[in-house]
Every structure is written in C-alpha cells, then in structure tokens.
Amino acid sequence: MNETYDLRAGESHIEVHKFHGGTILLSLLIAVILQSFLPVYVSKAGILDLPLLVTVYFGLSRRNPSTGLLLGTIIGLLQDSLSKTPLGLFGIAKTIIGYLASSIGARLDTEHPLARFALTAAFFALHQGIVILIQKLLLAQPQPWFTMRLLVACIVNATLGVFIYYLLDRLRKS
Amino acid sequence: MAGLPSRHRSLFLLIGVVLLQVLLLAVQIKQDSQGRLIRVWTVSAVSPVERSGAWGVGKIRDAWRHYFALSDTARQNEQLRRENGELKLEIMQLQGKSAEADRLAALLKFKEKQNKVPMVAARVIGSSADPNSNVIYIDQGQRDGIRKNMGVITPEGVVGKVMESFRDTSQVLVLTDRDSGVGAMIADSRIQSPVGGTGEPLLNMKYVGNDDEVAVGSRVVTSGMDRIFPKDLPVGVITQVKPGGQYKQIRVKPSANLEKLEEVIVLLTTDPLVLKQEPAALPDSSAKPVPPAGTSLPPPNAAANAGRTSDTRP
Lengths: 174, 314
Description:
heterodimer, A: Arp2/3 complex 21 kDa subunit ARPC3, two-stranded antiparallel ribbon, B: alpha+beta, Thrombin, subunit H, 2 domains, six-stranded antiparallel β-barrel, 4 helices, 34% helix, globular, disordered C terminus
C-alpha cells in the first residue's frame, strides 16, 4: 500500500498513485474552504468548482472506485453543508463523478494534460447534468440545461484543473 | 458482498451510497429541514478559518500596497526616497483608513438616521461553496440577535435575507440568487411587483403588466409587502424594459454592489418596519459611491464593534 504499483500487471501497466499521509484530506478541506472564501474577494472565482477538481484528480489517480466514490460523497456533502442546497445534491453528483473518475482512471492513462483537460471538461458537464437532473426530478427546481456561463465555467475549470493536477502530482509518493 | 468481484462490490457501494443520499434528500424535503446539525458542524469548523482568512487578506493588501509604494520611491535619490516613501506610506495608510472610515461612517450614519430600526453591522467572511448560488456568510450570528428571515442591507440598498443563523455566523441569501426575491415597487409610479434574482448580476421585476408605463432609469424601492424589509429602501434602477407575453420583461441593476460586499447591516427584527422618510437616509446609488475595490478591510472587530456599540436592539 505504500508504493506506486501496476494496477493490472501484464495488461495495461496503469499505475495507482499513492500520496503522503493527510494529503487527500488536506486537499479536500482546502478546496472546500477556498471555494467558500475566494468569491468574497474575487467575484469571478464563483465560476470555479474546486471540490469537483479535487474529486476528479484523486479519482483518476487512486483508481479505486470505492475510494473514489466515498471521497466524492464526503466532499459533496461538505459542499452541500456550506451551501443553501439540501444535503445530498452535490453529494450524489460527486459520488457518481468520484466513481466514474476512478473507473476511467483504472482503464485509461490519464497523465497527459490534454486527456486531463478533456476528462475534466466531460466530468464538469456530467456533474452539472446530474445536479440539474436532481433539481428537476427530486427538488422541483427547474434549471436551464445549458447557459453560456456553464460553457465558460466548463472550459475555465478544465483549464485550471490541468494546472492544479500538475501541482497535486508533486504530492505523490515517488 | 465478500463473494462478489471487486468491480461489482464498488457498483453496489455506489448504488447504496446514492440511494442513502436520495433518502436524505427526501427526508429534508418532507420535513422541510436542511440537515441543520451537519451544517452547524461544518460552518462552525470552517468559519474560524474564514475569519482568519478575511483578517489575513486585509493585512496582505496593506503589505502589498506598502511594497509598491516603497519600490516606486526606490528610483529616486536617497534622501528624497526616504522622505517620499514615508509620506507615501502615510498617505496610503490614511487613504486606507479614510476608505474604511467612509464605509463605516456610511453604516453608522444610516443606523443613526434609522434609530428606531434595530440593526447590527456585520462583515462578510465567506460565500457559498455552490458555484450556482449566491449566498454569503457574515461574522454575526444568533449571539448577536440574528435570526432566520431577517433582512440584510447596505446603506446603498437591499442585499438579501438571512437564510440560517448559527452561533457566531449567519448565512445570507443574496438578492441575485435564483431563489431570492423582495417585495418592491417603482418609486415614481408606485407600481408594485416582486423583484427576484436570476443567478446573474441583474435582477428581474416579474409582474408588471404590458399596459403599465415603465421608464428605463426609474428607481425601484422596497414595498414593505414581504414583511422583511421596511418600505422605500432602494432595491435598484431599471436598466431594460421589453414587452413580454403577459408581463413586461424588466431588468433591474441592484443599488448595492452585490458582487463586492464587505460589510452589511442586518435588520434585527422580522416584524414589519417603517423606515424614516428622509431622502438622505436613502442615498441614490449614483450619488453614493460604493466602497472602492481594493480598499483595506477594517480591523477584525471594527464592523462588529460598530454594530455592537450603536446597536439599538431591545
């Protein structure tokens, strides 16, 4: 458990990355706190979804669906509890994203920046889709499926994700 | 579960966790509760970090300004640089203090003119973790008399209402949020209609009939019908009027600078209020500039002290 190892030796040679103790928890907390703190001083920062980026990154890196979905659940519920949304809205969305990121991470090599950009954009769109679906079906709060703001947010988050993932790569155990 | 392949185990876990959260959502909707206990824990854990962050940002801003003042004067000769540097630093500090004093004086002046209305000043320390909603956190809570559904304003105009109050922190739904709204009317014609958020910087005036005369530039004020805000508080200025199906499509620019809130006032009552009818107490957004971006924050307790010292709560 302490070292990087091949997920399916002899098949895909995709590595499962390990992190120094407390890295995941600390990254998760920093993401949630910054998400809540930054927009007070930089109003445009409201477009970011840092908890989603952290969920996707650790999902792709750990490549264990159970860990990925539980991490998504925790970060999603934390985000819910610091928002006006009912507990579970972001929880469900990020649980699914955590699971999918881990599952995809276990099958594809996701180290290339372009692959990371594309995956983050896709996960962002899917995350928004799940949130809007829950709002429509369970909370009776109709929201538009597509706005220009969402498109811009998708591109901005995917771009930022590539840089944040690069920084988080430094925290891996070599 | 033990006999299942790992892939299926995680799939079952996913289904279980999602179902649990759907149940959690259902319970909250049915009981109209919002998981208050979990929110109290999270907010209590996060708000000290946000308070420290707000204090730290103020300090960094000051240090940043001082750094530039010093590096600029380094180009001059030794003697002049020293003198200039000192003078510039002094001016910077005075400007910072002046901007801060202006903001606090505006709050205080507003409070003094409305001395019959119990209110408390608060500083914005955080915002929503949900990118799609406009919610802020302020550094005053139940201990300061803040309760759910109390109105939140600035001297420039309406900000929103308290959604939830915790011990030392409160959650405020800002007017620009999709779920937000305020009873309003057009100041000149007295046509009443709620004004709500759209999730964007401009607000929407919802139910003004196509036959009603509405001019761009008209001021929109509170009507007092929502029983949260006193009558005649500035809400915004109409920037766009279009004919719609049944009602006009009216866009309103908020009077308060809702994208850059640093200090706010909470009206400490949920009873209907009557605001003192003095034009000076209701400054026009164009006449009263909003606090300039980049000005230094007041000391950590300044806003709170301003609120407490002149608090007229019973």
